[in-house]
Amino acid sequence: MEVATIITSSKEVISLFDKFIYSYKLMRLTGKDHDMARFESILNHKIILYYHFELNDPEEEFSYNYSEGEVETIREYYGSSPFFMFDLSYRTEALLTELLSSFYVFLIDNAVSPSDILISHPFDGLIKFEETYKVSTHLSARSQRVILQFVRRLKRYFRR
Description:
By secondary structure, the protein is an alpha+beta fold. Helices cover 46% and strands 27% of the residues. The chain has a single domain, classed as TATA-Binding Protein, CATH 3.30.310. The protein has helices at 11-23, 58-65, 68-78, 93-109, 129-133, 141-159; strands at residues 2-8, 27-32, 37-41, 47-56, 84-90, 118-121, 125-128. Strands 2-3-4-5-1-6-7 form a 7-stranded antiparallel beta sheet, sandwiched between helices. Strand 6 and strand 7 form a beta hairpin. Helix 1 packs across helix 4 (93-109) and helix 4 packs antiparallel against helix 6 (141-159). The chain is globular and about 45 Å long. It starts with a strand and ends with a helix.
C-alpha cells in the first residue's frame, strides 16, 4: 500500500473529510481502532484503504518524511497559520484519485473552498488538491457529480 498525506489549515476540512469517508459509497467500514479505520471494497471485500484519522505531528513528520525543500514549501504555503496532517494508506492510484475527486465535489457541495489543501503524494510529491482533483471549476456541483458518476461507470465497464 502507498501513503498519501492530506495537509490543511482548516478544521472544517478535516471534519468534512471524516463525514465524507464514512459515507463514501464505493467502500465499507470493516474495523476501527484508536487511530485508524479500515475500509473494504464493496465489490470484492478486500481491504482497499486505511484512514489514519489521528492527526500527525507536523514537526515529527518533517523530521523523517519530508525534504528540506518540501518543509519550506509547506511552511510558506500556510504562512503563520497552524496546519494539520493525516494519512490515507491506499491500495490503488485509481482509488485515491476517485476518492479525492469525490471529496472535492463534497467540499463544493458544502460550500467549503478546497484551495487550502495540499496532498503529499508518494510519487508526485507535494501537489495542490484543488488543481489536481477538481473536475471543472466552471461547472455546478451537480454537474460535477454527474460527470464523476459517468467516469465511475466507464471505469467499471473497462475493468470487465
